[in-house]
Specification:
The protein contains ten helices and 15 strands. It has 347 residues and is of the alpha/beta class. The chain starts with a strand and ends in a 9-residue tail after the last strand.
Length: 347
């Protein structure tokens, strides 16, 4: 049995969507216990989180993490199993999470890992640990707590509302902050999910090219908070519907990641007229909010107020396609790669 890893072979061109062309599959020997040094751990990666920011990383740009250069192994959030350990923090069989490489097996420093459970963790708990209880959920919670600061009965609009962050933002806004919530998503199927499963008061299908009219209908009193996951034309249109002291939460700009030419926002003077705030953020700048955010989301999941849909791709070799699936809007929910191929998941 060989160890598969996925390398970036070349930078993608601006606007390039066929990302399978920029990755390379490489097979090598599986690391062995005798190679471990003090403080190191041999892990088997079980699940990979696929996130839109990866498109920026493979451009080589330094953001909140270093860019990935051609010849380097791709990286991301993982759930892994400890196979052997020379770290006092971890035991053989532990389930851990970390920011590791796209590979089946690897040796890492123990300080790079976080213990999830002594022993095996069931699949849904593994998925939650790199979804609603990690980047996706904490991003939504931190964005609201630090920038949005919702007040009961305000109108909140969330773009990419059926995605990994968007679906959590919708449910937090509706059930935790008790606001009126409108989603924006691509296609009627996704909009039906946002309304019927997630509980949004309305959902606008941006592919129908009537966004301005639909925003007027869905938000007759304007928009108090906009949770932006897409940027571009949708953000520009939303700015025409803000009110006094609107808060625009800049979380992502997925509509611009694959474009050759960046969209130029035209309606930003509305921020001045309406004394509005538009601010970006990175969730891990607020570690003091991690525990309260996880407690809120865990409670909502237990009480049935938080539904999470996973878009699981089977096999590490599917990871490049999974990223392409996310960036082109083909996904339904949080995109996860199960490293070892199994029967198609029904989650």
């Amino acid at each position: 049995m060989a160890n598969l890893e996925i390398l970036l072979s070349k930078k993608p061109q601006p606007g390039q969507q066929q990302l399978s062309e920029v990755f390379q599959l490489k097979y090598g020997p599986i690391p062995q216990e005798q190679q471990l040094q003090e403080g190191q751990v041999l892990v088997e990666n079980l699940y990979l989180s696929i996130d839109a920011a990866m498109r920026i990383w493979i451009n080589g740009a330094k953001t909140y993490v270093d860019g990935v250069k051609p010849g380097q192994t791709m990286v991301g959030r993982t759930v892994s199993r400890v196979l052997e350990s020379k770290s006092p923090k971890f035991l053989k069989g532990d389930t851990v999470s970390g920011f590791l490489r796209w590979t089946q097996f690897e040796i890492v420093q123990g300080k790079e890992l976080k213990l999830l459970k002594r022993g095996d963790l069931d699949e849904i708990s593994c998925l939650h640990s790199i979804g609603p209880l990690d980047i996706s959920g904490l991003t939504a919670y931190v964005g609201f707590e630090t920038i949005g600061k919702p007040k009961e009965n305000e109108t909140i609009v969330v773009s990419a509302a059926s995605g990994g962050v968007g679906e959590i933002a919708i449910q937090l806004a509706k059930y935790y902050y008790k606001c009126r919530v409108v989603g924006i998503a691509g296609g009627q199927e996704k909009c039906n999910y946002v309304k019927k499963a997630l509980g949004a008061d309305d959902c606008i299908d941006y592919t129908q090219k009537n966004l301005n009219q639909r925003l007027k209908e869905s938000c007759p009193n304007g928009i108090n908070i906009y949770f932006d996951n897409v940027g571009g034309e949708i953000l520009d249109e939303v700015l025409m519907h803000i009110v006094d002291q609107t808060r625009v939460i800049l979380c992502g700009a997925v509509s611009t990641y694959n474009t050759a030419e960046q969209y130029k926002i035209k309606n930003y003077p509305r921020l001045i007229i309406k004394r509005a705030v538009m601010q970006g953020f990175i969730y891990f700048d607020y570690p003091q909010l991690f525990k309260p955010g996880q407690e809120v989301i865990s409670k909502m999941i237990r009480e049935g107020q938080m539904k999470i849909r996973y878009d699981i791709q089977n096999g590490l070799d599917e990871a490049p396609g999974a990223l392409q699936r996310l960036l082109t809007g083909k996904n339904n929910g949080k995109v996860i790669v199960r490293v070892q191929k199994q029967e198609k998941s029904k989650l």
